[in-house]
Amino acid sequence: MRQALQRELLFDGILQKIxxxxxxxxxxxxxxxxxxxxxxxxxxxxxxxxxxxxxxNNDYAENQYDTVLQRIRNIAAxxxxxxxxxxxxxxxxxxxxxxxxxxxLGNLPYGKLYPQLxxxxxxxxxxxxxxxxxxxxxxxxxxCEHIYPAQQVSLTKAKAQIxxxxxxxAQRNCQKEWLKQLQATTPEVSP
Length: 191
Known about the structure:
Blueprint (H helix, E strand, L loop, with lengths): L1 H19 L6 H10 L5 E2 L2 E10 L9 H15 L6 H8 L10 E6 L5 H7 L11 E3 L2 E11 L2 E2 L2 H31 L6
Antiparallel strand pairs: 1-6, 2-3, 2-5, 4-5
């Protein structure tokens, strides 16, 4: 086993040396890649969102379906038109772990929440509180605190990521080429 590990480490070391022979990626390569792949550098619209969650659990009187629905409606009435109090209401009433942070879920793109929550969140205007939304967890209220529109990531911001990606690709190609050459010059051993 020690010999196998030593061979593997030696082989990895050789591959690293071969990879170091690869071309250096220049600014022109990066700009060309960026221009040819602009769609990869689009940031989708995101929403800064807070939530209040009241769970349904029929084992407890205060968490029976009808009781929870009434509680969430009462909280919604307090929150609607009073978005500044939403964090306080979340800390007071929410059963979600985010309650300690005023219900803050963060800045989210479409597709990160349950489908019914995503649909409700992306239908809200900035500063608007949703109606109660039912999921398998219980009932939710959402506050859309801010809307960040979709935008193109600038070449300046994407440059380091592109350089790394292109350099890794060039290194892999160099290693593959070396392995092909090695395979072509190595005689086959018959059994």
